[in-house]
Amino acid sequence: TPAAAETDKPAAPAKKGQKSPEEIQKIRNAFDLLKQAGIITDTDIHTAPTVLRKRGGDIVEILVSAGKFDRNTFEAAHIVRPLIEATLMKLEQAIIVLNYCCRSRVDFDTAIDEMGWQNPRKLRTDLNLEK
Question: What is residue 108's predicted lDDT score, i.e. its pLDDT?
Answer without folding.
Answer: 97
